[in-house]
């Protein structure tokens, strides 16, 4: 029976392999074993078949130790510190790079344990000292790259990736709404943002929307999986309507030229800006009036 007074408890991953630690912390398994043997740094349990398993506390400690090692501290010195002293050393390091590294580690722990409170606490600490734009570039983009690698190596489940991506998207939407409440400062053009049909990866396009709004332009955000014939009504939205799309998996590379020709048939006079994995190595096409961007920074610089 459902009990409304029962406290909700997150399902926490309490056990990690040495390969998990290697993937999450970026320290080779061989080095972890040396640190265990030489400095008694971690205390793993062993299965009946003598396989090491590590606790969440072991993972947290190794993340902190890795952070200090990357900041220039010797492992021989760190190994003599207790956990409270390690935390104190970390707090004493105040450079932006170090703060961002520690935040990424905290977000990775939040991801592993579906820990909303840790995510919010870490985010609030960052945003108190910098802009959302810098948090996205310096923390969220590197974090998502690392999360993607952890997913590819089976260290985390797709559910973990969806959890952290959804939280980042929430913060992005809040900051987009703040910009939408302001009158556009630039009126020479407007932007329509959309993803191709069957393309659902919208986080990158959302951030482009944020950047365009931040630059002072008006945008119309259509979102995921938009058929090209749906764009016809937006051709005259503004005297200079520029369309923007993000190709992550769609259209397939061998179909990009035909896709661009179809776009031109519906929007013959409009510029089409394209960014994403599918066009990273594409240098030329047979369709004019479009622009490919190899990086987000290049696209934003072109505004």
Question: According to CATH, what is the topology of the largest domain?
Answer: Rossmann fold
What is the straight-line distance between the termini? Answer: 57 Å
SSE order? HHEEHHHHHHHEHEEHEEH
* Overall radius of gyration: 23 Å
Corresponding CATH superfamily of the largest domain: Cobalamin-binding domain
What is the CATH C level class of the largest domain, in words?
Alpha Beta
User: What coarse outline follows from CA principal-axis ratios?
Assistant: elongated
Instruction: Report mean pLDDT, rounded to a whole number.
Output: 85
Number of domains: 3
Weakly predicted, low-confidence segments: 1-12
Share of helix, binned: 40-55%
Spatial order of the strands forming the largest sheet: 4-3-5-6-7
Number of strands: 7
Category from helices, strands and their pairing: alpha/beta
Largest sheet: 5 strands, parallel
Description:
The chain has 303 residues and is an alpha/beta fold. It folds into three domains: 10-93, Multidrug-efflux Transporter Regulator, Chain: A, Domain 2; 95-181, Methyltransferase, Methionine Synthase (B12-binding Domains), Chain A, domain 1; 183-301, Cobalamin-binding domain (Rossmann fold, 3-Layer(aba) Sandwich). The protein has twelve helices and seven strands. The chain has helices spanning 18-25, 29-39, 56-70, 75-78, 83-92, 96-112, 116-127, 132-152, 158-180, 203-214, 256-266, 296-301; strands at 45-46, 52-53, 190-196, 218-226, 241-246, 272-275, 290-293. The strands form two sheets. The chain has a five-stranded parallel β-sheet. Strands 1-2 form a two-stranded antiparallel ribbon. Strand 5 (241-246), helix 11 (256-266) and strand 6 form a beta-alpha-beta unit. Helix 6 runs antiparallel to helix 7 (116-127). The longest helix has 23 residues, at 158-180. The N and C termini lie far apart (57 Å).
């Amino acid at each position: 029976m459902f009990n409304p007074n029962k406290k909700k408890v997150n399902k926490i991953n309490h056990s990690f392999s040495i390969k998990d630690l290697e993937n999450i912390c970026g320290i080779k398994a061989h080095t972890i074993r040396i640190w265990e043997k030489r400095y008694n740094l971690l205390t793993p349990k062993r299965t009946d078949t003598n396989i090491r398993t590590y606790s969440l506390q072991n993972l947290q400690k190794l993340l902190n130790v890795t952070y200090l090692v990357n900041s220039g501290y010797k492992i021989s010195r760190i190994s003599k510190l207790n956990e409270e002293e390690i935390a104190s050393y970390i707090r004493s390091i105040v450079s932006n790079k170090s703060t961002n590294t520690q935040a990424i580690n905290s977000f990775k722990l939040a991801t592993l344990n579906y820990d909303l409170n840790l995510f919010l606490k870490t985010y609030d600490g960052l945003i108190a000292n910098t802009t959302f734009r810098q948090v996205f570039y310096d923390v969220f983009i590197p974090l998502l790259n690392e999360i993607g690698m952890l997913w590819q190596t089976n260290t985390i489940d797709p559910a973990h990736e969806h959890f952290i991506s959804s939280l980042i998207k929430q913060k992005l939407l809040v900051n987009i709404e703040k910009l939408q409440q302001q009158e556009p400062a630039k009126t020479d053009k407007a932007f329509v943002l959309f993803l191709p049909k069957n393309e659902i990866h919208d986080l990158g396009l959302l951030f482009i929307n944020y950047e365009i709004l931040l630059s002072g332009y008006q945008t119309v955000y259509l979102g995921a999986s938009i058929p090209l014939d749906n764009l016809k009504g937006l051709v005259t939205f503004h005297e200079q309507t520029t369309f923007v799309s993000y190709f992550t998996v769609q259209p397939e590379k061998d179909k990009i030229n035909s896709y661009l020709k179809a776009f031109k048939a519906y929007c013959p006079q409009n510029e089409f800006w394209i960014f994403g994995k599918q066009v990273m190595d594409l240098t030329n096409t047979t369709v004019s009036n479009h622009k490919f961007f190899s990086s987000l920074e290049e696209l934003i610089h072109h505004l």
